[in-house]
Amino acid sequence: MPVPSDNLRIRSERLWDSLMEMATIGPGLRGGNNRQTLTDSDREGRLLFARWCEEAGLSLGVDELGTMFARREGTDPEALPVMLGSHLDTQPTGGKFDGVLGVLGALEVVRTLNDLGIRTRRPIEVVNWTNEEGARFAPAMVASGVYAGVYDLAFAYGRTDAEGKVLGEELERIGFKGEEPVGARKAHAYFELHIEQGPILEDEGLDIGVVTHGQGLRWIQITLTGRDAHTGSTPMPKRVNAGLGAARILELVDRIAWSHPPLAVGAVGKLDVYPNSRNIIPGKAVLTVDFRHPDLAVLLAMEAELREGAAAIAAEMGLGFSVDEVQGFDPVAFNPALVGRVREAAGRLGYTHRDIVSGAGHDACWLNRVVPSAMIFCPCVDGLSHNEDETITPAWAAAGTDVLLHAVLETAEIV
Predict the structure, then answer these.
(1) What is the distance between the alpha carbons of residues 204 and 253, in angstroms, rounded to a whole number?
(2) In this structure, are residues 328 and 219 in contact, taking their beta carbons and an 8 Å threshold?
(3) Which helix (H) or strand (E) holds 357?
(4) pTM, full prediction
(5) How far is it, in rounded angstroms, from Cα 153 to Cα 147?
(6) How far apart are CA 242 and CA 113, in angstroms?
(7) CA atoms within 13 A of residue 121's CA, in its CB half-sphere
(8) Per-residue pLDDT tens for 7-52?
(9) Helix then strand then coil, % of the chain, to nearest 5
């Protein structure tokens, strides 16, 4: 099978221009984007993407969850396609590149092949997954989750937003409820290019992250019950302070994460105290712990330490205690052969690179259950993402897309 020449590169300026044009749709308040899934802005972004795909000679299919598949035919009509893509939806205060780079980088791969008249045995399909962010309709990665059999279609259609609007109805409203059954399109392989959303590559001065694993995740909700009481007139020995118990559990979470270096992370991202009044000792606290690690055994050990330690804190303080797992998924090991192609492509092109673990969830994490998958990271400034200040350089975008081009060509097979 021919290996792509090391002088084969995408058109960096065209990719950057496409990123900047997409960023004009659903502008944020201070330079980023607010293009939440199934909004009018999402529809406008989808229509622009569809137009670009048509101009590139691709045939467009849309499944029942609105996921868009833009197909470039191969020479073998019986061969399964190589899929590549990500998502166009954003957080309410999102950046220009999270997800979008993966979709438009994939489109640039196809445009480059068209420019050079390169044919592949396998078809290539550029994918825009619906509702990756989960900012409007929880959970995240819902369309790829249905594709992979994690959720069923009825579950996805029934998701509601903060205003009570229903995902299935909003999909119809914007005109992107397709007829293809979700998962009917099978694939030979899936590649996803993404910004790192962390600081490692920039800190180490590297061009490319070769993603070997995705972190496993556990979201654990703890409820502490004490007794509401007046802050001024209740003696210290008489207090049953759920807020203080929550503070001690916050410290416990931090200690657990630090005790499993170097890959463990943990924090309390959501904390509510009740009745949340200035002069009332909290009688109830509800907090959600986020633990992540790429080794399932370590992740389970962290969860066990939390449950045991938090129960002990509650018992010592006389607090009521309950614990529930809100969401979780096991660590992902991406396909070794495809990961190897990404690594070899980065080396062949002369880009500095290292193996890296994804700390965030991505559509590729679900796809990997049913399709051999791999991911490519490029740096982002200060590791900042899910923030309007998120930014990358044209050179980083081009390097990641060059590696994507080469890995895809090896997998789709040049003819």
Answers:
(1) 28
(2) yes
(3) strand 353-358
(4) 0.91
(5) 9
(6) 61
(7) 12
(8) 999 999 999 999 999 999 999 999 999 999 999 999 999 999 999 9
(9) 35, 25, 40
